[in-house]
Amino acid sequence: MNEIRVIKIWVLAALLWLPLGCAQQKSKPITEVSQEELAGGILIDVRTPEEYGRGHLEGALNVDWFRADFLSVIDTLPKDNTLYLYCKKGGRSAKATHLLDSLGYRVIDLPGGYDAWHKANP
């Protein structure tokens, strides 16, 4: 009886560890992402059009997180491409990353956002 309990504990521990060991990286600081990585995906700025207009990363698509049709716009993008999301500092992009990940998109949050990128690239 004790042996069965020990086996159950080991199996449970293994099942709990497995998802952690196979977890995909869901974020990377914006100052550490390379142009090669971005070239293989779609760069999305989730700030407002006004913020985007004051400056953005080259090649970024503006899809405002606050738009009522945010998901409709995202749904027009291919799910087989990785989406790289950023905002001003990282709050909105983190929320958008969580939502899109739950919907099956391959998505990477770029915390630090435009402010960190602009500071590193004056």
How would you describe this structure to a colleague?
The chain is α/β, with parallel strands linked by helices. The protein has a single domain (25-120), classed as Oxidized Rhodanese, domain 1. The chain is 45% helix and 12% strand. It contains six helices and four strands, in the order ααβαβαβαβα. The protein has helices at 2-21, 35-39, 49-53, 70-74, 91-102, 113-120, and strands spanning 41-45, 61-62, 82-86, 107-109. A four-stranded parallel sheet has the order 2-1-3-4. Helix 5 links the parallel strand 3 (82-86) and strand 4. The radius of gyration is 19 Å and the shape is globular. The N and C termini lie far apart (67 Å).
Radius of gyration: 19 Å
The CATH topology is Oxidized Rhodanese, domain 1
Mean pLDDT: 86
Low-pLDDT segments: 10-23
Considering DSSP H and I runs of 4 or more, what fraction of the residues is helical?
A: 40-55%
CATH architecture label name: 3-Layer(aba) Sandwich
Distance between the termini: 67 Å
Order of the strands making up the biggest sheet: 2-1-3-4
| Helix vs. strand class | alpha/beta
CATH homologous superfamily descriptor: Rhodanese-like domain
Write the element-wise H/E pattern from the N-terminal end onward: HHEHEHEHEH
Task: Please tell me the total number of domains.
Answer: 1
Largest sheet: 4 strands, parallel
Q: What fraction of residues sit in β-strands?
A: 5-15%
